[in-house]
Structure prediction request, 452 residues.
Amino acid sequence: MSEKSIAVKAVALPSTAESSAAADSPEQAAQVLIREHLQEILANHLFRSSERCRRFLTYIVERTLAGEEEDLKERRIGVEVFHRPADYNTGDHPIVRITASEVRRRLIQFYAETGAGTPPVRIELPVGAYRPHFRYEDVLNPKPQPHLAPVPVSARPQENPGDAAGSRRNYSWLLLAALLLTATLAIAGFRYLEAQRVAASAGSLQQFWAPVSTTRQPVLICLASPIVYQPRLNVYQKSPRFAQEFATQLDRTRHELHLPPRTSLRWSEMMPFKNFYVAGGDAYAAARYSAVMSELHKPAQVRLGDNWSLADLRNSPSVLVGAFDNDWALQLNASLPFRWVERDGAGMILDSSSAHRLWQQHWDTGKPIDTDYGLITRLLNAPTGQFVLMAGGIGPYGTEAAGNLLSDSAALATVLRELPNDWSRHNLQLVIKTTITDGVVGPAHVVAFRVW
Prediction:
């Protein structure tokens, strides 16, 4: 059976425990099935791990079923679902847009994993909207026969009653066939345009990363591993909560150590860890780049800390992840139009053509970070003699946002449309900005670029 869209009317809603067969009307039957299917989605591993996505999806589905679509506005959702103040700035805190994008992605993945057409109902969230669409099997809404106005008696020709009934039936079938043909052509046209859009987006991803395919060597995804110092066991034993919070190694990695301010420590009580830790933003970005290489059928190797050198960069195309923790990324960017610079406890991205044009972030303010900047550099023929892609933020969020952009075909296509037509044959730098809401990185926005 083919799928159709349904506009569910606000009616007295039956309990989800009732089966759809017990509903009194097609609308009630549809609502029962939609609610049951919503519970299936929320129980899936894709949504169990995100309470924010669960709350958002439940809210927009229930409001739609109740006919309260006026509540499906960004600010209203931010206030009622995410407990934001009524006058909060949606531009500075785009948590609703970020969550909608994440829910949309998880729904697509859910149906891809469960198999298309398996559930009798599908819940979809169109791009740029907060009102979900419900798609369901034809069995829920039998098609009524087209209504034909009665013909006045005086105008009716004298004919066999059976012949007249047969003509009306033939006309009804012709009308129904015409309607079905029109709907089929409309659906086919929509699918064609959508396929063209997806193909164009995918083409942008392949075009951006095309230089990695100029050699058979695998792409090296290189991450820095900063030296981290950790107290020895005897330091944790100074805590009055040692037995409750720090007795095991696992406990010591999960709980923050609080000691009296005047507690003295010897340097011998600290242990250095090298090639052991990776910044969170670097790890997220590296995972994104690995996925892109897999999609492009290009072998890739992840190198960590001291496990890569200049000789490796001269032999293979590479992706250098991070900025101020990645020595080679800093060196290769040092003479470019945009570069990373550290001054007076602040990290910044500086425009070489104007000392007054910069984007910066102070690291030691002690305040939550709500904005970060990143720099993406694409060198076709770097000093290493190979293609090099460098992407890092002033903080970890900028690095993560860069990874999200360069692995998202649709977002990347939007950015590349603003560049000169021949950008792919030149070196390229993008300065990006992202906002952070509740620890969630928002979309990357390009604030400056250079092509040379």
About this structure: Confidence is low (pLDDT under 50) at residues 1-23, 138-157, 192-201. The radius of gyration is 29 Å.
